[in-house]
Amino acid sequence: MTTRTPLIAGNWKLNKGGEDGCELAAAVARAAEKAPHVSVVVSPPFTALAAVAHTLSEEKSRVEVAAQNLYPKDSGAFTGEISAPMILTAGAKWVILGHSERRQYFAESNAFIREKIAAALAAGLRPIACIGETLAEREAGKTLDVVFEQLDSFADLFTKDPGFGVIAYEPVWAIGTGKVATPEQAEEVHAAIRSRLREKQGEKVAEQTLVLYGGSVKGSNAKELLGCPNIDGALVGGASLEPAGFAEIIAAAEALSAS
Ligand code: 13P
Is residue 1 part of a domain? Predict the structure, then answer.
């Protein structure tokens, strides 16, 4: 287990965008109360961002809120877009950026994702920057080439305030497929990410940056994944929509970090 405070984040994707998001957030708040050694974040769609943040503050919860995207301009004529300062105003402190679904379906490049991460950091919004290889890339033996290219495209931005930004390693082949990486497969890449950070960005960034694992994490596999020395938490999709399942993952992190 990590010596860093573990973070369990629920990425709700295109779900729970209304009152149902507030109900789920309230349930997560109850689960987080039993896990004082774990940081917990929920990431609703934009439509529920402010309402979920409000619910959590009414509950006096430690659970924090993340947006799932931003546009890297503060304001202006960009119809349909949402800026980092707006996300902060809605009560969120985090933003998930560079998710593989955005890379795949919305053609987001490493350069554009870098701009977004820079905009988040400039505003004081904590980025969870996602990286990970596809199945074809893994099978071609290119996992670390791809992951390092994605990582190197933004990681220098993390040197100004080491630990403020977070990385999520999400192998694309394990997202929503039920195919979880084995703890050995995940730890191998996590350890490589940490070495790369040490080599390129220095000891402080390497030691203080949380590297989360994402891809079919659930209650039944959380303990063995989170038990790996370079896995500092989880970015959870499907299982975060179900209060009992997400609570199990939070409890697994608490059991490991309290022991
Ligand atoms: P699943 O947990 O549904 O595989 O999704 C992972 C993910 O994409 C989190 O960002």
Answer: no
